[in-house]
Amino acid sequence: MAKSPSKRELIRDLGLDKLDGDPDERAEDLQVLLRSMNDEAMPHDREVDDLWIQYDPDDRLPVDQMELANAIIGGYGVEAGFDAGDNELSTSSGRLVMEYVNTGDTYNATVVRDVESNETYIGTWGDFVEQWEQGRDEYDDDDGGFRLL
Predict the structure, then answer these.
(1) Are 132 and 145 in contact (CB under 8 A)?
(2) Could you tell me which residues come within 8 angstroms of residue 7 by beta carbon, excluding any fewer than 6 positions away?
(3) Domain count, the chain
């Protein structure tokens, strides 16, 4: 499991100081959420339940914990990446490989969830894709490769 980032790292890497509210509080909230997402024994705890309420002022409960991460870091929504396999023309088929909070650029720091390892961490989705492609023995430029939705 990846080392949990410090509040200072989260504020710097995710630009939490540019959002409304207290950046230290946002960083703490994200730390709580990341711990919860990476702890199989405790997928929802009281602290995370309180975060749902805090970051949902319009009472539109986020669909899942990645949506909550999106709200905390002020992202542009949650997107997913798929192993498209041999289906080069399809963007809707394939095995879900990862989810990430869209922060506007391929190599901006963000919240990334690796579906295969069930690990959630701070990184870039561009780095994830590069490592994923290098790690595939059967990867070939002629197959469908990686698809985002």
Answers:
(1) no
(2) 24, 27, 28, 31
(3) 1
1 in a structural domain: no
Q: Which residue has the tokens 């499991």?
A: 1
Tell me the pLDDT tens digit for each residue of 39-91.
744 545 667 777 766 776 566 555 688 989 999 999 999 999 888 765 554 45
Cβ contact 84:144 at 8 Å: yes
Q: Kindly state whether residue 20 falls inside one of the protein's structural domains.
A: yes
Helices then strands, each counted (H, E), the chain: 5, 5
CB 84 within 8 A of CB 94: yes
Look at residue 100 and tell me if it is in a domain. Answer: yes
Bridging pattern class, strands 95-101 and 78-85: antiparallel
**Residue 18 CB coordination number (10 Å):** 9
Give the range of the structural domain holding residue 23, as residue numbers without chain letter.
7-148
Structural domain includes residue 95: yes
How crowded is residue 85: how many other Cβ atoms within 10 Å of its Cβ?
A: 15
